[in-house]
Amino acid sequence: MTVERVANPAFAFGENWARFLTSLSDEQIEYATRSVSTLVGRDLQGKVFLDIGSGSGLFSLAARKLGARVHSFDYDSRSVACTQELRQRFFPGDDTWTVDQGSVLDEQYLATLGQYDVVYSWGVLHHTGNMWVAIANAAALVRPGGIFVIGIYNFRVGRRGTATWAKLKRWYCSAPRWQRVAWESAYVAWKVASMAAVGRNPVSAIREGPRPRGMSWRRDVTDWLGGYPYEAATPGELLEFMRRRFNFALVRQNVNCDLGVSEFVFESP
After folding, report:
1. pLDDT value, residue 221
2. Strand, coil or helix: what is 105?
3. CA distance 100 to 93
């Protein structure tokens, strides 16, 4: 889950993932493995799996543990290093898991990849600065009968909607460090107060352990506030695009009704 820096300013996703890996636990790996298995919805043993925007490498690791042959790539060099670190840590010398630095917007690079049984890109393509081209390029890598798994931010209108957050994220990535720290502290305080207001114990909520996507609560805050470039789509827009452009069939969807990531699984005809 990381990003292509095709706009300036842009968030250093790889730095955030590097900090995340210092505390990666077996429980987080187990959560991630279950997440991949549930979303894909089919046996990965012997399948070829492409992870676009591999980030920490956690979900590439999950696919490899499920028996897939994995190719991971990311635009961000620090994220590539994180993925390579996980491969070395858990599958040293394994020639069925390869890691590259590359861009989903680079058609020359994509032409070297071929097609895959599973193309997986969760929380990535909306950070490229050219979301619809990125989605189309990724979908073209799915072989006939294969599946395309993506997570895309849900579009919302209004003062607290997508346009407002795009401005805030751009400001965050341009701001000096002290202003970023102040904004993070204010956001955390607001989240804690919101939990308390509805009767949730903030300490328990934050310490409840690994989240299904693997990232800790604190690292998730930084990822959300800084995640720029930033685009979003409604489920209807995405479904229509995939039907019209590729004639892909929707297999399952988990729609986020706020600003978070909606998950979609499509099957290629």
Report:
1. 85
2. coil
3. 15
Where does residue 144 rank: exposed (0-12), middle (13-18), buried (19+ CB within 10 A)?
Answer: exposed
Give dist(CA 25, CA 177) in Å, integer: 29
Q: What's the confidence (pLDDT) of residue 6?
A: 47
88-102: buried (b, 16+ CB within 10 Å) or exposed (e) per residue? eeebeeeeebebeeb
């609560």: which residue's tokens?
217
Q: Which residues contact 49 (CB under 8 A, 6 or more apart)?
A: 60, 63, 64, 68, 69, 70, 71, 116, 117, 118, 120
**Which neighbouring-strand residues pair with 52?**
73
pLDDT of residue 211: 54
Q: Give the separation between CA 162 and CA 155, rounded to whole angstroms.
A: 6
Class of domain 1-269: alpha beta
Residue 52, classified by CB atoms within 10 Å of its CB into exposed (0-12), middle (13-18) or buried (19+), is: buried
Q: Are strands 48-52 and 97-101 parallel, antiparallel or unpaired?
A: unpaired
Sites in the chain below the pLDDT cut of 70:
1-9, 205-216
- Amino acid residing at 20: F
Nearest-Å Rg of the Cα atoms of the chain is 18
SS3 content of the chain, % helix, strand, coil (to 5): 45, 20, 35
Stated as kind and residue range, the H or E segment containing 52 is: strand 48-52
